[in-house]
Design goal:
By secondary structure, this protein is an all-beta fold. It contains one helix and 16 strands. The chain has a six-stranded antiparallel β-sheet with strand order 1-6-2-3-4-5, with no helix packed on it.
C-alpha cells in the first residue's frame, strides 16, 4: 500500500529497496525556500542495520503488509524470548533486539500482539496497561498525600518506575508499559 512520504511515522514498517524497514525516527524538514523533505532513520528488519534516508515530500513509500497474531509469552532462555501463537500453538523465538524496550515487561502468560512480515516475527505490541505488584519502594510519609513528589518503585518484573507517594510495597498497580508510566492503583 503506497502512502506519501509525509505520512511516515515512528514504528511504521515500510518496504525500502525491497527490504522491510522499521522507521526508528523521522523529521519533516523544510530548509529555507527549498522543497520539503522527510529525514528518516530506518532499521532493516532482516539484517538489523540502521541507516538514514531522506525522502522528498513528493515521494511515495510502500507500507509493508504485516500480519498480526495474538501470542502468549512463555519463557526466556538468556538469548531469546519464546512465545506461542494462541491460534495454532506454534512457538516462535524473538531476540532482545527484536523486542527492544518491550522485553523488560514480559511476564509468563502475558498475551501480546506480534507483527509478522512474510511469515517471520518482527516485533510486538504490548497491552495498553498491565497490573503488577510493587516489590520495593520507600514507605509513604504521614501527611505526604498532599505533596505531589513522586518516588521510584520497583515492580515484580524488575522494572523501576515513578509512582505517587501513597503507593506502598505490596500494592497492585496498573501501568502503561509502552511509556513505563503509572496509571492507577488496581482494584
Amino acid at each position: 500500500m503506497a502512502i506519501p512520504a509525509t505520512q511516515i511515522r515512528r514504528g511504521m514498517v515500510i518496504v525500502f529497496e525491497g527490504q522491510p524497514c522499521k522507521v526508528v525516527e523521522f523529521r519533516h524538514h523544510t530548509p529555507g525556500n527549498l522543497r520539503a523533505m522527510v529525514q528518516t532513520k530506518l532499521r532493516n528488519i532482516r539484517t538489523g542495520t540502521s541507516f538514514e534516508h531522506r525522502f522528498r515530500s513528493a515521494d511515495t513509500v510502500d507500507r509493508a503488509s504485516l500480519e498480526q497474531h495474538e501470542m502468549e509469552y512463555l519463557y526466556s532462555d538468556g538469548s531469546h524470548h519464546h512465545f506461542m501463537n494462541t491460534e495454532n500453538y506454534e512457538q516462535v523465538a524473538l531476540s532482545e533486539d527484536d523486542l527492544g524496550d518491550a522485553a523488560q515487561w514480559l511476564t509468563p502468560g502475558l498475551k501480546i500482539q506480534a507483527e509478522f512480515y512474510e511469515g517471520a516475527p518482527i516485533g510486538i505490541d504490548l497491552p495498553p496497561s498491565m497490573e503488577l505488584t510493587v516489590t520495593q519502594t520507600e514507605p509513604s510519609l504521614k501527611g505526604a498525600t498532599v505533596s505531589n513528589v513522586n518516588k521510584p518503585a520497583t515492580l515484580e518484573n524488575g522494572v523501576t518506575i515513578t509512582v505517587p507517594p501513597f503507593v506502598n510495597e505490596g500494592d497492585r498497580i496498573r501501568v502503561d508499559p509502552s511509556e513505563g508510566r503509572y496509571i492507577e492503583r488496581a482494584k
